[in-house]
Amino acid sequence: MRKISFILFLVPLVMFSQSQRDQKKYNNIVELIKQNELELAKQESYKLLKKNKDWKKPHLLLSNIFLKEQNYEKGVEEFFKYYNINSQKSSFPVFQLAEVFYKEGVYLEALKYFNISANLSEEENKYSHYINNCRFAIDAMENPVKFDFKNMGKNINTENAEYLPFISADGNEFIFTRLLEFEEGMFQEDFYKSEKINGDWIESLPMEINTIQNEGSVTVSADGSFLIYTACNREDGKGRCDLYLCVKQENGKWSKSENVSNINSRDWESQACFSPDLRYVYFVSDRRGGYGGDDIWRSEITKFGFSSPENLGLTINTKEDEMSPFFHPDNLTFYFASEGHTGMGDFDLFVSRRLHSDTFWGIPENLGYPINSHNTENSLVVSNDGKTAYFVSDKSGYGKEDIFTFQLPEDKRSTKISELELEIITQNNGNEIILKNVLFETDSYELVETSFIELNTLINYLKKNPQIKIHIEGHTDNISDDKHNLILSDNRAAKVYGYLVDRGVSSERLSYKGYGESKPISTNKTDQGRRQNRRTSFIIIP
């Protein structure tokens, strides 16, 4: 458990009712407590009380000492020895005491003193958030969710701090920010990337986009074509921290970064994520027009660039801070961190699900205890299958902050999406999407029975997304003559079209055509190349 911070107005005193020597002793004890010399501070406090029996202020010293030692009973006892001498009872000192227990996760005690504060105050409503959080936390701790977390290991974590993770839509790339000390007291933030080989994450290496300046908080679009990161105090910056965009080039390298000027403001922008369908970029900003300090905003991606940002609204944002948005590849499930929604104090992790359109969100659900605790939890990302989550913690590990992984509770998971659905989401910009498991009998347009699994997946996707229209294509290799191949490919495309229509997909949303051997995607000189050219595919019609 973390050490309690300095809380009960322990400041140097100038009191004319006490001798200068006693004032100096009091102030020396304050410094001892700040330096965590608690035993010596305790001895000196008792000496001061013994000499000045009517002076109650040293009880506040002892209260702080005992609370820092997590001796809560004695800490409260000493606090009220000080507090009860006041003829006019103020709610604020009791609120401070409640905050100590609240920040330490001692929720029953915190609830007691928040209630006392509320009763003493003329503004009871200002305590309701804390009271609700305490009640939630007590219940959550009595009903914990399964949570077996595991350090990601030495290929990801080091003696340095690692944080703000990102996992690619296909689950094979893992990017994060690492804080490096290059001189004493001088730090540098850079991006590191690991790849999954044979089920294991290999050693992480610096990314090519790193500069001599700081970079942090990276996200990559689901199709791998765009990257956005945060940089602060740059010459071309508009505010304290801005978002910068890189584009994947034909040689596989990232372009030089450009300031996303349509999104950035004179304030603070950071922690971006793309929607899986590449329609929006979501980010955090403290700009004017929000509901709290840091809110989650989004900007639409159009053929002209990025639109003027819009706030996600009060379902997601609160009067407090929201952070670290992550939109899962299922295009429905949205994870983020919040101080304002009912939780266990500080930042908790939440999940919300998109409802019916891009503008309506489900009520955020707390991920539960012990995933969330009285400490800060944020920067959650989730694997494609919705089962595995990655997060940052200062739990025991290789360094100050490490990246850990755990299995999400089933009711907090995103929708598992198939390989086909993932490809639809990431390639819906007019690119060909191959139905890899749709097969036909040799030189025939009769479907092999195993093809129905892939086609049923496509049907389910089309029914969940009634606005989408597709064009089905049939293709062959160059074996046999052109006319035969053209007829065969057209019949195969028609067979898929008929299967979809027979199972409830409107014909108005579908079209088809056979192209024979005219649109190869590989060579026809090898068996493997011809196998790739014999395919059924579709494109999404804009």
How would you describe the overall organization of this protein?
There is one protein chain. It is built from eleven helices and 26 strands. Helix 1 (20-34) runs parallel beside helix 3 (57-68). Strand 3 (173-183) and strand 4 (186-197) form a beta hairpin. It is elongated, with a radius of gyration of 30 Å. The chain folds into three domains: 20-142, Tetratricopeptide repeat domain (Serine Threonine Protein Phosphatase 5, Tetratricopeptide repeat); 150-412, 6 Propeller (Neuraminidase), CATH 2.120.10; 419-541, 2-Layer Sandwich (60s Ribosomal Protein L30, Chain: A), CATH 3.30.1330.60. The strands form six sheets. Strands 2, 3, 4, 5 and 6 form a five-stranded antiparallel β-sheet that branches. Strands 11, 12, 13, 14 and 15 form a five-stranded antiparallel β-sheet that branches. A four-stranded antiparallel β-sheet has the order 1-22-21-20, with no helix packed on it. The chain has helices at 20-34, 38-51, 57-68, 72-83, 91-104, 107-120, 128-142, 419-426, 451-464, 482-502, 527-533, and strands at 150-151, 161-167, 173-183, 186-197, 200-201, 205-206, 216-220, 226-232, 241-247, 258-259, 269-274, 280-285, 295-302, 305-306, 310-311, 322-327, 333-338, 348-353, 365-366, 381-382, 388-393, 402-407, 433-434, 469-475, 510-514, 535-541. Residues 11-16 have low confidence and may be disordered.
Please count the helical segments.
11
Strand content: 25-35%
- What would you give as the CATH superfamily of the largest domain? TolB, C-terminal domain
CATH second-level architecture of the largest domain: 6 Propeller
Helix share of residues? 25-40%
Gyration radius, rounded:
30 Å
